[in-house]
Amino acid sequence: MTVIDSPQDPAAALPTEDSLSTLAIAAAQLEAQQWAVDRAEQALTDLVQTAVSEGLETGSIAAVAGLTPEEIERISAEGSDA
Prior knowledge:
The protein is mostly helical and 82 residues long. It is built from 4 helices and no strands.
């Protein structure tokens, strides 16, 4: 049997200290992982730009980096703008 519009105890909806602690830990872990991804993306960008400046072939760079040639060209162009 389903009860529609049943009144709920408002106190039951409030988070407990434990759930807030768990939430804070999860948020901190996510931020740390996002920071690590940002660092890894910057390192990859730097290495791609170095490979392009050394004259390596775009298709080869793309294959090794797991990117498309278009992405390599975009990253290379960003490096020349800096």
